Structure formats: structure tokens, C-alpha cells
Prior knowledge:
Chain A contains 18 helices and four strands. Chain A has helices spanning 16-44, 50-77, 99-104, 117-121, 138-160, 166-188, 193-197, 205-223, 228-232, 239-258, 266-293, 301-315, 324-343, 360-378, 402-406, 427-458, 465-470, 472-476, and strands at 86-87, 90-91, 390-391, 397-398. Chain A starts with 15 loop residues before the first helix and ends in a 57-residue tail after the last helix.
Amino acid sequence: MLAAITQVPYPSWLNPADNTWQLVAATFVGLMSLPGLAVLYASIVQKKWAVNVLTMMFAGFSLVLVAWVLWSYKVGFGSTSIGGGVHNGVQTQLSGVGWVKHFFENFAGKPGSITSAGNESSQGVSAANTVIPFHFPTTTLAYFQFVFAAITPLLFLGSVLGRIKFSAWCLLVPLWSTFVYGIDAFLLWGGGYFAQEGSLDFSGGYVIHMSAGVSGFVAAWVLGPRLLRDRQHALPNNLVMAAVGAGILWLGWNGFNGGDPYYAGIDAAAAVVNTNLATAVGVIVWIGMDAWLSKEKKPTFLGGVNGMICGLVAITPCAGWVSGEGAIAVGGIATVIVWFAWNYLSKVRPFSKVDDALGVVYTHGIAGLFGGLLLGVFGNPNMIEYGCGHLDSSGQVVNTTINTYSSAGGSCVPFSVNGLAYGGSAHQLWEQARAAVWVILWSAVVTFILMKLIGLVLRGARYKDEILEVGDLAIHGEEAFPEETLAARVGTLSSARSGGSSGSGGAGAGGSGGSVATLERPDDGPPSGPETS
Amino acid sequence: MKLVVAVVKPFKLDDVKEALKTLGVHGLTLTEAQGFGRQRGHTEVYRGAEYEVEFVPKVRLEILVDDAQVEDVTNAVVDSASTGKIGDGKVWILPVEDVVRVRTGERGSDAL
């Protein structure tokens, strides 16, 4: 006799633990943007630019999301590529194809929306995960990928702030997200050309950080520098809030790297620990180098924040594929390199000629590049991202021991990276270098074209000097720390103490458009009683 | 009536206030100021970039005084604000034409 069908909360392919972690991780990454990065950047610029930074952060984040669900998620993660190299989640050209054809049939997914109910409720799928099905819906995968797509342009806002037109920013963000981020994401993660060739980027050292660093640099170059006076007085306005932003950025990264194995398993935990380790080393190294090698010979808080960012960025392409010693090495090496670049490379061309306002090209561009290359050195074959075992018909793991999980053999070889330091060949390093060259060139060229186009359309992508002199008040009509004694609501200035004024309607206020209704107040005329001298 | 203006180091403010209270001075106005004379400023470093700050934080005191008390008040301020090091500040005295108490309208010495 058939059992009665009862209501169940979710389909069998959905594992609530995996779905939970994925959504939590996505939320952490979202927090890294709002308020983490928003507050960090807004605190290290001059007071007069704080509101401008905050507005572009919130607007940028929002623009990416709308574009994402309407078309660009599928450019990065769609299951069918333009050109057909990937079809319905299956890679169709695993061998025997010339590299040009291979590239152009596997460089981007077909754009499309995911806003329908059917799209949102289906099982997540992308060309990168044909072997093990995702245990959560498309919505979870799309939102998780969205928060990464969103933070990327926000990172290079740091290069162009202080002179880019708000309208130029609003045009740049969705276009850049589609053509640079979307395509790089498909190529490295969505099952596209570089993924098929074997290049790896665990969480976005290349796709996010190196790309942002290069793009910001190029955009800053096209835009021209900030006002000379702004560069001469480029002091932060609030180090305490900067710490709030930096702290959220660090701990939020647990989701950034911890969510990228896509399963709430061993590798997620390893990625979290490795991330924190590399970051801690970064903080210590930069502070130490400031204390011993800088001109002032003082440990600095903002230096610690720079080191923090270097460690975070450098470990991002390798977090789940290195072990603890690799994480320490990656964090240390990348931070040392970036410290020298920040203090010395910045003084030579072309770096000395481009006003990358917050130095994104160093802490994200260079750190991301070296992190991605170092994967080819420190990838540890025993750090397994996906192991071997048994799956039931709905794709859930059953009866898999740790020994089975870690063993190689038969049709299953566990997935890990074999770097130079562990006896592996230089092949991975070579694949990393190839992908790096692509991401750098593509980011630079497309950003250049977009900036020029936007400049044409808007008749200049930067504000006139008269506006730059004033900053927030001229652009937004708002300032970061308004002084209430100096400002009065339009229409209330002529409303005297209520003893003599008429009732509601603000009849004494000049001009109809700006008046504010005066509330009835009890008469509080001059105090009565004897004067005390 | 005179206005005694004193620019002194901020951490000496408490000593100066105590000295004035002892003399019976009723009120004073304080503003935070930045200044330099012979005292040099300092260098700040943010994200590896050096910034020179020529000015040094000071406090500016303004005290309305009757002619008879000017000498005592000036000496009290100078003695209590002094550390013997560069940057101690200066005190100067201005003549005042009239003073009015806002609450009562009293004028002249009655307003002090």
C-alpha cells in the first residue's frame, strides 16, 4: 500500500545545512560592502568627501543587484555559454579543439533573467559544478555570487573618488559588472575557458581583487587626479569608524572564503582559518615594517589596516587549497611585497603619474596577483576541497568515511592543488600566470573603453573644479557631520516665540513653498519672579 | 574696564581657572585655538604619507576685569599657566568701552 503523500518543507536535493551556511556566508559578504567597506572608505577620506563615498557605495551595490538578476548573473554563471561551448551545464568541448575556438565558445554565459518563480526555486546549477550537484536553490547561489559581484566595483571606488561624477559612477558600475566581472567570472568559475584549462581562483583573488586594482588604476588615469589641494590635505576624518569598517571587512571575509567550497564541510572550515591566519600575519608584518623601516619608525594603525587587506586579498585565491603554513607564507610574502610597492613603486612611473586615491592597485591589484601566483607554489595536495565517496539518488552524501573521502582511486580522484613547494610541477603556476595576464589585460582595456565612452556621453566624467572645491555640499546638499546650531529649517526662522504668533500654518513665514506648519505650543513667555543678581 | 586675553597650553587650563577663582573672578570665556610662536608643530603620518602640522593646540581665555584688578589677574594667569618651556603662550590686555549684562541690561562695572 502506498504511503500517503504529506507536505514537506523542501525537495530532496536541498540540504538545509548547506543552504544555511551559504546564505549566512552571503550575508557576511554583503556586510563587507554595507556597511564595512562603505564606512572604511568614508572614514579615511576628508570629511568633505564622506557623503559622496557613502552614496556611491549604496548606489553601486544596488545597481549591481538589479543588473545581476536581470541579466548579468547568467553572463557569469549561466549554464549555457554564448558560442555553445557549455550547454545546459555540460562542457561540450573537453578536447580536440583549437584554442581560439575553445576560447570564443567558452568565454561568457548567455545573459538572461532569473526573476521568475521557476528560476528562483530551481536547484542551483552552473557549468562549474557538474560533478556534484549544489544542495541549495538557484536563488542562494545567485545571491551568494551577487555579493561578490557587488563588492568588486566598490573596491575600485577607492581609486576614482574625489572627482568622479556620480552619474558617471552609476553608468560605469552596471556596465563594468557585466563586461568585466561577468566575463571574468565565467572564464574562471562558470566553467569557461580558463576553468577548463585548469586555472584556479578560490574566491576571487583575480576576478575580484586584481581586476579591481587594475580597473581602478586605469579609471583613475583616464579621470585625472583629484584637486591638488585635496591631495595635499588628504587626511582621514575618523579613525575609530575606520576600525569599525575594517573589522567588519576582516570577519565578514569568513563568509567570502568560507562560502566558496559551496558545502558546509571540512574545506569551508579550513578556508576560514587560513583566511584569518594570512590576515593576522599581514597586520603584524605591515606594522612591523612601518616600525622598523619607515621614515617615522612608528607602528601605525592604518598601516595595520593595509596589512590586513593585503593578507585578506592574497589568501583569497588559495584559501581552501593551502594548509596553515601556506597561509602564513602567503600572507607574509604578499604583505612584504605590497609594503615595498606602496612606499617605493609608487614613486616611479606610471604609478607616480596616476592618482589612485586609496592605493587600490597595491592592496588589491598586486596582492591579488601574487596570491593567485603563490597558489601554484603553496597549493597543498592534502587540502582536499572535494573528496571521494557515495552519493544517493538525490545527490546527498551517504556512508562516506574520512578514509574514503581522502583517497584516490578508480573513477574518483579527490580535488586539491599540487603546488611547487609540495613536489608538484610548475604547471599550476603556469596556468595561474596565463589567467593573470588575461584578467589584467581585459580589465584594463574594457575599463579604458568604458571610461572614454562615459566621458563622451556625459561630456566629461569628472566634476568641475568649483564643485570639487566644495565636495559633499555641492554634489549632495548634505554634509557628514551637520552642525544644528548653524542651520534652520526653511520657513521657521521668522516664526517667533509662540506668545504672539498665530497658530498652525506658519503664517509669519515668508514664501509659500518653503514654509513649515508651526505646531501649537503653550505660551512660554519671559520668566516671572524676582531677578537673582 | 579691560579685556584680558590669554592664550595658554590646554593642560594648564585647570591651574589657571583655580588661580582666577581664588582671586574672585566671576566669569570667563574659553575657546579652543591653534597657534604657534617659537614652538614648532609636528608631523602626522596616515597610510605612509607625511603631513606637517605647523599649529599646536592652545586654549584662549577672555576675562573682563575692572581696572583695579587687571594687574592681579594678569599675574595670576601668567604664574599659573607657566611651565618654563617654549609654547607657554602670551597674555595681552585690551581696553573695553562698555559692558552690558544681557539678562538685566546693567552697564559698566555693574555688569562685570
